[in-house]
Model the fold of this input.
Amino acid sequence: MSDFDPPPPGWPRPPACLPAGQLDIPPNGARVRVAGLVLIRQRPGTAHGVIFLTLEDETGTCNVIVWKSLYERFRRAVIAGRCLRVLGRVQREGGVIHVIAEEIEDISWMLDDLLRADPEQGEIDRPEG
Done:
C-alpha cells in the first residue's frame, strides 16, 4: 500500500491490509485496504440502496459502506462473500470509523485453503467424513 509503510514480517492479514484494530491510525480520507469475515450485511429500506457491511479480523471489527452504484459492480462479492478484502477511504464521523468502499474482492477461497492445509507442516487438515 503506498499510503503506509510495508507490513512487518509475519503480518497476519491478507496482503497489504490494515488490521481493524489500527483503523484509528490513518488520517480521515486516507485510502486503506481491509479484510475480514463478513459478520453482518444490512440494506435498510431507508438507506436508498446503501449497503452496510461489518467485517471482523483478529483485531476487531470494521464498518464498510457500499454505495448503490458500487454495489451493482461488486454485487456477487457483497451478497455471497464470506471473507472480503475492501479498498476504500477512511471516514470518521461522530466517533465512528467507516471505510467507504471503492473496490470489493471476495477472498473466501482463502478460508477454503485453510481446510486444505498440509498437516505435515503443522497446519490443520479438513476432518474426514
Remarks:
- The helical segments are 68-73, 75-80, 109-115.
